[in-house]
Each structure stands twice: as C-alpha cells, then as structure tokens.
Amino acid sequence: MYAITIPEPGGPEALVWAEVPDPVPGEGEVLVEVVAGAVNRADILQRQGFYDPPPGASPYPGLECSGRIAALGPGVSGWSVGDEVCALLSGGGYAEKVVVPAGQLLPVPKGVDLRQAAALPEVTCTVWSNVFMIAHLRPAETLLVHGGSSGIGTMAIQLAKAVGARIAVTAGAREKLDRCAELGAEILVNYREQDFVAEVKKATDGAGADVILDNMGAKYLDRNVQTLAVNGRLAIIGMQGGAKAELNIATLLGKRAAVSATSLRARPLGEKAAIVAAVREHVWPLIEAGHVRPVVDREIPMSDAAEAHRVVEESGHIGKVLLVKP
Fold first, then answer.
1. pLDDT given at position 172
2. Maximum CA pair distance of the chain?
3. pLDDT reported for residue 191
4. CA 158, CA 261: separation in Å to the nearest integer?
5. How far is CA 206 from CA 148, 201, 230, 298, in A?
6. Which of 48, 59, 115, 314 has the most CB atoms around its CB within 10 Å?
C-alpha cells in the first residue's frame, strides 16, 4: 500500500507518499481500507518531531479516518467485511489501509457522506469526553470554546447547543466568528481586538463561564481561571500557547473551580473504547437527527498531505481539512 511517511522531521515537505508494507490485523483488530483521513494539530507536531506515536502504534500520521472494513482479525464480532466505518486511531490514518482496534470503530452515521465521516471521530471523542464526561456541561450553563472555528470548536458549539447550553467562542477573524454564530454561538470574541475575560464576564452579568474548553495551554491559563464562574471547570486539551505557566491557587480556591488536562492518543485501549461507546450512544443520534454535522473546510488528495498541513498551519480554515484517497 501507499502511506504518508516522515523520513526526517521537518516542514510540510517532510511528508512523503511512499510504498510501505500492508498492515495485518491482530487479535481484536480490523483492517480498514481508507477512503479519507483528517488533519489534526497532533499530526503537525509528529511531522516536526515533537510527538512520537505511542508504542505499538502505526508510525504514519493520522488520528482518524473513514473507509470500509477489508478484513477482520481473530476475536472480532459485531462487524463485517464491507461495513462503512469511521475510526479513532493512534496513528496511520494517512494511508490506504490501517489496522484499528475494534473498540475504536464507529458506523458511518446515517445521512453523512463516507468521506466526510472522517471529520468526526477525533472531534466527537475529544469534545464529548472533555466537555461532558469530565466537565459535565449542563443545560443553561455557559461554555467558552477557544478556537471556535476549528474542527474541535465547531463540534463543541453544536453539541453544547444540542444540550441547551449557552456558547461563547474566541476566534481571530470576523468570518470565523460569523460561522460560529451560524452553528449556535451567542458570545463572539475576536481575540485580536477584544479581551475574552472582560467580554465573557460582561455577557454573563459578571458570572463567567461554567466550562472552558482550551487549546492554548500556558498562554491562557491565568486568564481562563479569571474567566471561570464559581464551581467552574477548565478543560485543557492543547498547548498551542506553551506548556508552562503559573496558576493562582487562591483564585482557583475562591471559585471552587477545577482544572483538567487530557489527551486521547496515548490512553489505554479500554479508555478509548469507553469514550467511543459513549459517543456512539450520545452523539451519533444527534448527527443522524440532523442537529449536529461535520464541518469540512476542504478536501485535498492524501498524496498531497504537505499542502493540507500548510493550510492548517496558516489557520485560515474553518472546521476540518480532509485527506482523500487518490
């Protein structure tokens, strides 16, 4: 088969479409013939040499895909060859074929195109596990989403709206904020021109955000804690703004607030399977009812993954950038 390889870390040009051995499914695994994959920030870090795959994972980038089951490994039940699926991966999505633990498979939701289903696994699992399973967002609460026009952000807006929450977002351009509003965001903050702490406090009569989904890390830590409401929950899922910062414990104590930080890729198989099962139970019905949908900015041939990485690094996109099989 062909896959995107990384012979040496570097810029987008480090991604090389090359012939590699076909993967073989082991116990409890399935082989998926990939139709599309999606680009995530973690893929860029891997390309740069900063985020190695977990032990035993595929060396090729790609944390999600959609396609058809080509073969079943020993001990797999509930799935058949030919089933159309999408999958949460530890790696290997930038390839013509990938091996997936059966617990990380999802059926393609009714009404969703097979290619566009590749935009769903990582964002739905990230948002559901952090915003709902950990931070327990409830109806009528306020959710602040940083990077509201990203793949994660566009999914968080839709899921929060579906449960009756109020949504605030940050983004760096009017067009991006307008798209967030179309999806259901009510409090729109241009972080280049406005202070999100002040804007969220003003829009909530001084109360602040009950839940914050943060992809920035260190750069926003202190301001996020200032923005939290009493009993607020800050969920950190990225470090685009750095890894180290000081935390004012007194402010956190005064608000009886909580800070959590998670990632999906290196979690044990059982934890990932539990998240995928929760997404299938709670999110898939919302997608099939038309309340939630994948937001796709563009499709790029997988062999031209370098161009897809350039698009994501320039941050001009809205939603997900897909890599489609040549």
1. 96
2. 59
3. 97
4. 22
5. 22, 4, 11, 39
6. 115
Q: Kindly give the parts of the chain with pLDDT less than 70.
A: none
Q: Token pair of 249, please?
A: 């414990």
Q: Listing from the earlier edge strand, what are the strands of the sheet with 166-171?
A: 187-190, 166-171, 142-146, 209-214, 228-236, 258-261
**CB burial of residue 226 (10 Å; 0-12, 13-18, 19+):** middle
Residue 291 confidence (pLDDT): 97
Which residue, chain included where needed, has tokens 């991966």? 89
Task: For residue 202, count CB atoms less than 10 angstroms from its CB and return exposed for 0-12, middle for 13-18, buried for 19 or more.
Answer: exposed
What pLDDT shows up at residue 326?
Answer: 76
Tokens representing residue 139 in the block: 């109806």
pLDDT in tens, 119-156: 999 999 999 999 999 999 999 999 999 999 999 999 99
CA–CA–CA angle 255, 259, 262 (5° rounding): 165
Looking at the DSSP bridge assignments, the partners of residue 319 are: 150
How far is Cα 131 from Cα 135, in angstroms, rounded to an integer? Answer: 5
User: For residue 78, what pLDDT is reported?
Assistant: 96
Measure Cα distances from 135 to 15, 95, 121, 127 in Å. 37, 34, 20, 10
> To the nearest 5 percent, what fractions of the chain are helix, strand and coil?
35, 25, 40
CA 209 to chain centre: 21
Q: Which two three-digit tokens encode residue 161?
A: 């709206």
pLDDT at 197: 98
Query: Within a 13 Å sphere around the CA of 133, how many CA atoms are in the beta-carbon half?
Result: 20
Using CA atoms, how far apart are residues 280 and 261, in angstroms rounded to an integer? 23
Q: Are 64 and 95 in contact (CB under 8 A)?
A: no
Kindly report, residue by residue over 26-64, the tens digit of the pLDDT: 999 999 999 999 999 999 999 999 999 999 999 999 999
Helices then strands, counting H and E runs in the chain, come out as 10, 15
Task: Identify the pLDDT of residue 174.
Answer: 97
